[in-house]
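Fold this complex.
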Amino acid sequence: EPEVTQTPSHQVTQMGQEVILRCVPISNHLYFYWYRQILGQKVEFLVSFYNNEISEKSEIFDDQFSVERPDGSNFTLKIRSTKLEDSAMYFCASSDRGEVQPQHFGDGTRLSIL
Amino acid sequence: TQLLEQSPQFLSIQEGENLTVYCNSSSVFSSLQWYRQEPGEGPVLLVTVVTGGEVKKLKRLTFQFGDARKDSSLHITAAQPGDTGLYLCAGARGGKLIFGQGTELSVKP
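Structure:
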């Protein structure tokens, strides 16, 4: 069964450094998403992406965050200058059509900011 | 703020018992999805319900979407230790998912 893959599985970064989290969505999917889950808290929406542009973003997704689909298969989340509070699990998801279609999640990247 | 309240947060039962998990909101969702999440892994989709009043069955799991599309329930019949895990509901609104806080289920043999 096709799946969403994310790399790396764990990223440790010094505060203030840039980090790029990578995702390969399911190949025929058109909608892409990033979520994060701080330890012990709910999964929270960050951003959705369709047709090479951001469809919607949450208040968490400030100027320090950006997303890109650099080629036909990858979808990346960049955090420019990481803060301690960015430590979380970051999940990528994709769906094939949109609002009523299920989103399929990767196994996440655990980001630890020191 | 769109909230999805999931209850109970923790549930510990004996093998063979039945249980129900609830997700409630004051907001209407275009669809509602149930996931199961294992430690260190991403949420794995169990089912999507779209139509108000819809009922879907997945072996011993029964999912229901409320008539007004604001609430949902997951009922497990004759729970088994293999059902142990974290169950998440998530409502779809404007393309994003709003998650409940999860139900940590423990089924003891």
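The interface with chain B takes residues 4, 6, 31, 33, 35, 41-45, 48, 50, 55-56, 58, 91, 93, 98-108 of chain A (CB under 8 Å).
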